[in-house]
Design goal:
475 residues; alpha/beta; Aldehyde Dehydrogenase, Chain A, domain 1; 15 helices; 39% helix; 23% strand; binds NADP nicotinamide-adenine-dinucleotide phosphate
């Protein structure tokens, strides 16, 4: 079985200690990845600090050119990288390709943004003074990413960090490190200065502790569960380390009777079933206005039943396996709990029989009570709980009754209602008649327990810049 190396200070490092990587479609390991201990992470931080001194002096234009070269390398190897995403994560190949495509777009967007770390000049209030605001790179950044979008969520940190002039150490998830190894190969081929980008793997708590406690690491950007985010907040307290946190979600979808029903069903399908329901912005709860409830359910269930479940490498597959056995057990628990509390099971509801790997049937539940686990927790599976509502205010109140606030969706053709929803839904991203709101040039992130800060867009690069006020006495 092949053991993949890590990328440290411009070189490839294979270690005797390695973690297995499991294909969720078979439940079997297919490769291994090298791992490092805390001392080696400390060395990586020191190397990144040494590299930072030179990298920060490189012009934004030249840094952007490096990012464009990485994008070009990734584009050249799109099919190979997409296949690796499917092997380690399980998602259908077409969605792996889309993930590579989005990663390329992020790299190109930040390649251009690298030139635009603008400051400003502020009119003085006192004679003999001038005021400048300048933005400078923070320094060494740690980037910790999850398994559900193994490539793009790392790129969403690495690209703006490098564009800003920071150096960066990426730690991918234990389950899905290999697409990051291929990404590191693209960085290597783009001839980035050594130490500007490094890839580590190993014990999450050891790596996390080093990044938190080492004062040379000036920033941690994390995507993952709210629980791990809370651990990082506690760990960051003593060093007052700045954190960007992209945490869990529990997105509501509101479908109003004035919506285009076909578009609403299609939008809810994408928001729910893309990435086999394992997306932080996945629709978790669907509320439909009562006059169209039955019609919506009929169409939605028909489409859910027609979804093709299988190994992501097989052609035409739309739903891959879940990431592991725990995810499968959680999915079963959410369905059983909902049914026990009075929900009607309209399709699916259990792991796929007679199949190795972690497959769960696309599932639709109707009339799910608010106490159901699937109405309160992040389900992360192809399970769609649907319920009826009577009034807009009630729908908004139910949508907002969550500790999470990452994304929300609404389908309506009433412009005034659309504005009320924009203003009143408690979420960082709101798709109105749109089931896939994410795009490179717009800020991505949540409110409430879904996190701190924003990725992508100008805000995404700002997260790696210090803002300094320079007061210049010229009198
Ligand atoms: P997770 O368990 O929190 O893991 C995420 C990352 O954190 C992994 O790399 C993990 O490493 C690492 N980690 C775990 N414990 C750590 C510690 N003590 N110190 C430092 N790092 C640590 O989350 P997950 O289950 O992989 O990912 C799913 C979650 O991510 C969901 O809640 C989802 O909503 C959220 N998510 C949020 C967004 C967003 O943008 N808001 C996007 C995608 C996913 P190991 O894998 O090695 O344990």
């Amino acid at each position: 079985m092949k053991t993949y190396p890590l990328y440290l200070n411009g070189g490839w490092v294979r270690t005797p200690a390695a973690n297995p990587v499991i294909n969720p479609a078979t439940g079997k390991p297919f490769a291994r990845v090298s791992t490092v201990d805390r001392a080696r992470v400390r060395q990586a931080v020191e190397d990144a600090q040494a590299a930072f001194r030179a990298w920060r002096q490189v012009t934004g234009k030249a840094r952007g050119e490096f990012l464009s070269k990485i994008a070009w390398q990734l584009e050249r190897r799109c099919d190979e990288v997409a296949r690796m995403i499917t092997l380690e994560n399980g998602k259908p190949l077409a969605q792996g390709q889309a993930e590579v495509g989005m990663s390329i777009d992020h790299l190109r967007w930040f390649a251009e943004e690298a030139r635009r770390a603008y400051g400003r000049i502020i009119p003085n209030q006192v004679d003999g003074k001038r005021h400048l605001v300048v933005k400078t790179p923070m320094g060494v950044a740690g980037a910790i990413s999850p398994w559900n979008f193994p490539l793009v969520l790392g790129v969403r940190k690495v690209a703006p960090a490098l564009a800003a002039g920071c150096t960066v150490i990426l730690k991918p998830a234990r389950q899905t490190p290999l697409s990051s190894v291929l990404f590191a190969e693209c960085v290597d081929a783009a001839k980035l200065p050594k130490g500007a980008f490094q890839l580590v793997a190993g014990s999450a708590s050891e790596i996390g502790q080093e990044l938190l406690e080492n004062p040379l690491c000036r920033k941690i950007s994390f995507t993952g569960s709210t629980e791990t985010g809370q651990l990082l907040i506690r760990g960051a307290a003593s060093g007052v380390k700045p954190l960007s946190l992209e945490l869990g979600g529990q997105a509501p979808v509101l479908v109003f009777k004035d919506a285009d029903l076909e578009k609403a069903v299609e939008g809810a399908m994408i928001a729910k079933f893309r990435n086999t329901g394992q997306s932080c912005i996945a629709a978790n709860r669907i509320y439909v206005e009562r006059p169209i409830y039955r019609k919506f359910l009929e169409r939605f269930v028909a489409k859910a039943k027609a979804l093709n479940v299988g190994d992501g490498l097989e052609p035409e597959v739309q739903i891959g396996p879940l990431i592991d056995k725990n995810a499968l057990d959680k999915a079963s628990e959410h369905v059983e709990d909902a049914v026990r509390k009075g929900a009607r099971l309209l399709c699916g509801g259990k792991p796929l029989p007679r199949r190795k790997g972690f497959f769960f049937e696309p599932t639709v539940l109707a009339d799910v009570p608010a106490q159901g686990l699937c109405m309160r927790e992040e389900t992360f599976a192809p399970i769609a709980p649907v319920c009826a509502f009577d009034k807009e205010e009630e729908a908004i109140e139910r949508a907002n009754a969550s500790n999470y606030g990452l994304s929300a969706y609404a389908f309506t053709n009433d412009l005034r209602r659309a504005f009320r929803l924009m203003e009143n839904l408690e979420a960082g991203m709101i798709g109105i008649n749109d089931g896939v709101p994410t795009t490179s040039q717009c800020p991505f992130g949540g409110v409430k327990q879904s996190g701190w800060g924003r990725e992508l867009a100008t805000e995404g690069m700002d997260a790696f810049l210090d803002t300094k006020h320079i007061s210049l006495g010229i009198g």
